Amino acid sequence: MDRQLCVLHANCQGEPLAALLRLCPEFAARYEIRLFTNYTREHVPDEALASCGLFLYQHLGPQWGPLASEALLAKIPSSAAALCVPNMFFLGYWPLWYNAPGFDFRDLFLDHLLGMGLSKAEILHLYLRTDLTKKYDLQDFLDRSLEREREREAHTPVKYLDAVLAGFRKTMLFNTVNHPGPELMVLAARGVLSRLGLTPPPDAEMLDSARLLPEFKMPIHPQVAEFLGLAFAGPDTLYPVFGKQKTFAQYAENYVDCRLLGIEDFTGYLHLR
What we know:
Layout: E1 4-10, H1 14-22, H2 25-30, E2 31-37, H3 46-51, E3 52-57, H4 69-73, E4 81-84, H5 108-115, H6 120-129, H7 132-135, H8 138-153, H9 161-167, E5 174-176, E6 179-180, H10 182-195, H11 203-207, H12 222-228, E7 239-241, E8 244-246, H13 248-260, H14 266-272
Parallel strand pairs: 1-2, 1-3, 3-4
Antiparallel strand pairs: 5-6, 7-8
C-alpha cells in the first residue's frame, strides 16, 4: 500500500514528535512525514498540503499570515485528517526568562544588573544572593505561565497540562522553556496516535527516542527551586551544558562573561566553555 503524506507543521518539538510517531508500525506503514518548521517561517508548498492525507500542526494565529493554521487548513483536501498537536511551553523553572533578540536564554535580573555597569563580581554576588521573592512575585510568574499554557492547550485535543502540574516538582519535565523532556514528548505522541486510532509503542521504547536537545538542560536558580519545592534542583545540582556538567552559579558566570565580552551567540559560547 502506498503511504500517504503527513505534513507536520511545528517548531523544534516537531522533530522528536515525528521520530516517536515513526516508531508506531501502523503509523509508519500508513504515512510518510514531511516536517516544516514554523518558527523559521519555512514555506509550506500548496502542493504538499493539497496532496496530504494527514495534517498535524501546532496552532498559529492570524498574525502568522499565510502560515496561520486556518490558512493552511483551508488548503488541505476534504478527505485529509487534521489534528492540532501540543506546543508546550513552561516558564515555571525559569521565571526570569524573557524573549528578546540578540542573546540566547535571556534573564531579566541578570540583564538588569549588567545594565547598571557593575563589575562581574558585583553582578554575580547580587544575582545569587539577593532574595528573589522580595524583588519578584514568583507565584504570579508561575500563575501567568500556567494560564498562558491553558490557552495553548485549549487548541489541541491532546492534553498535557495536568501531567505538568502533577509532575514538574518531582522531575525536570522541561530542558528549556520550549523544550519538553522525554516524558512529555511521549505523552504528546501517545495522544496523537490514540486520536488517530493507532496503538502507541511501549513507553520504554518511546522514551529512548524522545530526546529534544538532551545535551542542554537550562540550569535553575536555586532560589526558584526552593520556592517551587523542586526535589531535583539546588545549588550543587549539576546540569548538562553542551558536553559539560555545570552548577547554576557556573552557568550564570558564563552568561555574565559572554555578555561582558560583547558576544551575542551564547549557545556557541557555552559549547566552548
